Amino acid sequence: MDRSHFYALMEGDGKLDYEVYLNTSQILKAQKPMTDLCNKDELMFQIVHQIEELWMKLIGYTLLDIDDYIQETNTHRVISLFQRVHQTLTLMTSQLRLLESMSPKEYQEIRLQLGNGSGQESPGFRTLLKMPPFLWESYQKHYLDQKGLTVEKIYNSQYSHCEAYVVAEALTEFDEQFQAFRIHHLKLIYRTIGIGAKSLKGRSVELLQKGIQQRFFPELWDIRGAMTDAWGGEYGVKRDALGNKNNAAHDN
Ligand code: HEM
């Protein structure tokens, strides 16, 4: 097949209504020209990163809407939009696997093209890292404080599967999905450049472990541990106020 013929076909001429509306000319020219690619994997490497940036743009935009709806306590909207965010994060994580089809050697060749570039400079990622404190502030004010609720009440002492609980679980899911992306990204790094290797910035990728431990909404994780402690550390054993065993589920 004539490569240059098909390269031109892939880009289209950008004049049809569909191409104009979606700005396909710009999107399809946003990668290196095929003839300049350093190897056969570089196009995939660029496209995956670009798509991830677009997904993060969508997530950031959606989180702004979610924040507005949280302030209105419009729970139906909050939940619908969080479903979109969660689904997008799932896509982001699963797309990382595409990069595992690239050999370590091909990555090393591509890496030389990156200059000092690093994922830490991702505008989408940096934006998303800044948003959770604002979401939490809105949630706390409108779903908890104004209704006289606390995280402990909605999860434990006054548990009724109320709207504040459902929104808290959506926030938890967001936190978990974001961590999942970071964990899979680290696995990808191990697979591609090795465990304990120095990264482009000259620092060990183990530093990324710190990011994996980051929790956007610590209160929503701490309540689970606090409940486990309060309800009794031993599974199947119930104790009275003095700490004596009673009604032990597994006592014979
Ligand atoms: C084989 C593919 C990849 C490798 C080898 C890789 C490698 C790395 C390394 C070594 C770092 C540490 C910082 C540095 O020194 O640059 C990093 C950070 C980062 N990378 Fe990747 N990466 C890959 C793919 C991706 C993809 C597809 C994304 C899509 C968004 C991405 C986003 C990020 C982000 C956001 C950070 C900062 C993470 C944080 O601060 O927690 N990376 N990457």
CATH topology of the largest domain: Methane Monooxygenase Hydroxylase, Chain G, domain 1
Average pLDDT rating: 91
Radius of gyration: 24 Å
Give the terminus-to-terminus CA distance.
Answer: 77 Å
Shape: globular
Bound molecules: protoporphyrin IX containing FE
Number of continuous helical runs: 12
Structural class: mainly alpha
CATH architecture of the largest domain: Up-down Bundle
Q: How many domains comprise the coordinates?
A: 2
Low-confidence parts: 248-252
Oligomer: single chain
Summarize the structure.
Helix content is 63%, strand content 2%. It has 252 residues and is mainly alpha-helical. The chain has two domains: 1-30, no CATH class; 41-223, Methane Monooxygenase Hydroxylase, Chain G, domain 1, CATH 1.20.58.
